[in-house]
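HUMAN: Now follow token order:
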Amino acid sequence: MRRLIVVMVVLLSAFSAGCRAPERKPTKQSELDVCRLQKSELESQIRTIERENANLKEQIRILSRVEKDVEIEEIYGLKGIRLTRYTNLYDKDNDGRKETLIVYLQPVDNNGDIVKAAGAVDVQLWDLSKEAEQALLGQWRVERDELKKMWYNSFLVVNYRLNFNAGEKTAQFKDPLTVKVAFTDYITGRVFEEQRVVKP
């Protein structure tokens, strides 16, 4: 009986092996098609690299004509920042409390023109009538990616418009406060500072 079972197992194994489809070897035509596809992809990559190389050569050609002793500040020319007169505390939700600080910031170049400069902004709100440890009412930082979304350009107004929640410390806005702003220019690395007194 045991011998019969062994024979049947061997026969079943042989039968199942015979039912499998034989593995197909790649034909010359399929290998040729694969090679053609690879060649097409490589040619596309070469064209892309050649375009990038041509662009870099053009940049080098232009930059080589720039005078060697010219400072980046002379080319870029960011001179400072201005806080407009609209910088103040506002009651945005009409609940009787001025808890929203809006800072209108204008980076200006050597000619006094407003420019959309890339950088980060640090803002502080101070009550200079209080003791030193209580004078700082709030501070915020706006990084470059967030700052570029705050650019506002219309027919009459061009500036960064920064909104901050000053909270309960300014809800009863009765005395003048001081807004201090530091703008870090990401092109030159310079920090430009400005401050403005805001009144109720």
Summary: The mean pLDDT is 82. Residues 28-64 form the longest helix (37 residues).
